[in-house]
Design goal:
The chain has about 350 residues and is of the alpha/beta class. It has seven helices and 15 strands. The strands form three sheets. It has a six-stranded mixed beta sheet with strand order 8-7-6-5-14-15. It is globular, with a radius of gyration of 22 Å. The two termini are about 35 Å apart. The model has no long low-confidence stretch (mean pLDDT about 85).
Length: about 350
């Protein structure tokens, strides 16, 4: 609000800052300021500096390189009933190589050009367990919900349906699976990989990797294996928490702020749960990634700035959008493919 104030603090003390946009800063950001110390101990800021990671080297590809896509999808929100929604069925058909889904419109690249699929969390829909794990102390009525054997919408039942879907997908393409806010994983960041017992069939397939949230991965096109694209991907909790406390006009603008401040989760541990680390912060950017991707967002957005491709991947259940990122292009060209929901 207009009453918010910004205070700069270090080991020597704290001082209130004036002349800054309070709605674009959050507790946890590291900044340096240049200005004048005014009356009553306030500091008038003339210029503000963010640490930010050093830019990486540009990736040069010969003209006419064959596209090599990484597909990113999030928010599948698979339920426990076992029936597959129409959009989810079309998505699976396309990713396993059935190009007839888009033959009439030609609105999607050939599925054979997709090298990897990244499932960016929120694989199953929110259940009672999801809401209860946010509570510090359970009420007596909560214990009744947990012990209710007639409740079909449980994380265990949802994961059985998700296992069948993901196993079918993994038969045809490499798949990296991240946990998300609604999935049966720990609430603290970084979320650990889903336990293999939750995906009994899928986890046995050699094409599957169960990874953390967030995580980074380097993916190189088969035509140029020496030019990998380094991607930093989160299931979206860090972006959600940042936007909740600020007034950035877009997801991409907020993601740019994350990169500028040099930390993927600046609001942790104040308002975003995370493990305590004594010696190093695992969320800091040592170097700028080639792509910064946040999943389970409100809408699809993308931009290329400062050598970094920013991608906001919306929930598939709400939007029906699959995002394809071409790692064989210098600026990681990105397109969205929409399946009717």
């Amino acid at each position: 609000s207009d009453l918010d104030t910004i205070v700069l603090e270090d080991e020597s003390g704290r001082v209130e800052l004036t002349g800054v946009q309070a709605d674009k800063l959050v507790t946890g950001m590291v900044v340096a300021v240049y200005g004048t110390l005014m009356e009553k101990g306030k500091f008038e800021v003339k210029e503000m500096f963010f640490p930010g990671p050093p830019e990486g080297s540009p990736r040069a590809f010969p003209a006419g390189s064959r596209p090599c896509y990484v597909a990113v999808v999030s928010g599948l929100s698979i339920g426990s009933k076992g029936d597959v929604p129409l959009a989810l069925g079309k998505l699976l058909a396309y990713l396993v190589g059935d190009n007839s889904v888009f033959e009439a419109t030609g609105s999607a690249p050939d599925a054979s050009s997709i090298a990897k699929v990244i499932v960016g969390g929120n694989i199953v829909e929110a259940t009672d367990e999801h809401y209860l794990k946010q509570k510090v102390r359970l009420d007596p009525s909560d214990h009744i919900k947990i012990a209710d054997t007639n409740n079909k919408l449980t994380a265990a039942n949802c994961m059985i349906s998700a296992d069948a879907f993901l196993a079918s997908l993994a038969n045809s393409v490499e798949v990296d699976i991240m946990p998300g806010d609604t999935d049966p994983s720990n609430a603290y960041l970084p979320q650990q990989p889903l336990h293999p017992v939750l995906l009994r069939t899928t986890s046995r397939k050699p094409s599957v990797r169960l990874v953390t949230n967030p995580y980074d991965v380097s993916i190189a096109p088969s035509s140029n294996p020496s030019l990998p694209a380094r991607m930093f991907i989160s299931s979206g909790q860090n972006l959600d928490d940042l936007r909740r406390q600020t007034s950035f006009s877009s997801n991409v603008e907020a993601m740019q702020a994350l990169l500028d401040c040099g930390c993927a989760c600046p609001t942790a541990p104040n308002t975003l749960l995370c493990y305590p680390f004594a010696d190093a912060d695992p969320f800091t950017f040592v170097a700028a990634p080639d792509a910064l991707i946040c999943c389970n967002t409100s809408r699809y957005e993308t931009a290329f700035s400062g050598g970094v491709r920013f991608v906001s991947v919306p929930s598939f259940k709400e939007s029906g959008i699959l995002v394809l990122i071409d790692v064989a292009s210098p600026d990681l060209n990105t397109i969205s493919v929409t399946f009717s929901v």
